[in-house]
Amino acid sequence: MPTIDLTGKAAVVTGSGRGLGLAYARALAARGARVVVNDVDETVADQAVKSIAEAGGTAVAEVVPVGTAEAADRLVSRAVQEFGRLDILVTNAGILRDKVLWKMTDDDFDAVVTTHLKGTFTCARAAAVRMREQGEGGTLILVGSPAGQRGNFGQTNYAAAKAGIAAMARTWSMELGRAGITVNAIVPVAATAMTETIPAFAPYVEAMKNGEPLPDFLRKGEGFGTPEDCAALVPFLASEAARSITGQAIGIGGDKVALWSHPQEIRAAYADGGWTPDTLADAFATSVGAELQTVGIPAPKLPEA
């Protein structure tokens, strides 16, 4: 018998009409949670609800673009109206506007930050208010990205938003702990519309669409798989089995699950009376700068031909 049972719980999953969001919504519904599906496309949202119902789950659609306080209130209110409560929030909604720094416009930056970062903030705030009123705890699951952990070329807006989401998870885990509300960031890696354009992945994603399995070097070595591979983490974190887990960034993809470290000091040096530019120049390379940190998402290690 499954140990993860979310019967009686109510969830909101933003951006859940397709892709990872839909996988999260289906995984929650499969364990008994009732789900508010959210998308900006009514047809897509309705299809998602239908697929959940056909699998024996319960879901309703709320069509609204996340980002504003009004949208967040609508999503929380819909859960309360339909299911009488809110226990789980998954902030998955996102968009991309990739450009290098010198070509990125204010609109490119603002659109991504509004959806990802402000959308996470407004939805989490509305959910936290409701969960604290209920007095029975709850779960906030914030969707991050490897780009937010390490940076990624051409993704100033997206990487900044995702890094902020991880920081908010750590902050809110402290603020909401006394209310019994856990807050974690998840870092999924999967074949979606956002990743299938990466040249190294493209032929394998295309083969997967044709029914071929992904090779082990991707599923294990890169932690890269399907959206469904990432979905198991969501009902687990929403369950009583994960009540002691909060403030963490947890990666999942393919056959791999991993805990990301928090930023921390790795080396330190000291100078009596403080540092000058000259003493820093003399000492930096052999002290704190002896092993500078890498940036960017490592390229997939493809097998040799």
Protein traits:
305 residues, globular, Rossmann fold, alpha/beta
In short, what is this structure?
It contains 11 helices and 8 strands. It is α/β, with parallel strands linked by helices.
Beta-strand content bin: 5-15%
Q: Can you name the CATH architecture?
A: 3-Layer(aba) Sandwich
The residue fraction in helices comes out at 40-55%
The total number of structural domains is: 1
* Arithmetic mean pLDDT: 95
Shape: globular
Q: How do the strands line up in the largest sheet?
A: 3-2-1-4-5-6-7-8
State the helix count. 11
Task: Draw up the topology in text.
Layout: E1 10-13, H1 19-30, E2 34-39, H2 42-54, E3 58-63, H3 69-83, E4 88-91, H4 106-134, E5 138-143, H5 146-150, H6 156-175, E6 181-188, H7 202-209, H8 216-221, H9 227-231, H10 233-237, E7 249-253, E8 256-260, H11 277-283
Parallel strand pairs: 1-2, 1-4, 2-3, 4-5, 5-6, 6-7
Antiparallel strand pairs: 7-8
Helix pairs in contact: 3-4, 4-6
Describe the structure.
- By secondary structure, the protein is an alpha/beta fold.
- The protein has a single domain (10-260), classed as Rossmann fold (3-Layer(aba) Sandwich), CATH 3.40.50.
- Helices cover 41% and strands 14% of the residues.
- The longest helix has 29 residues, at 106-134.
- It is globular, with a radius of gyration of 21 Å.
- The mean pLDDT is 95.
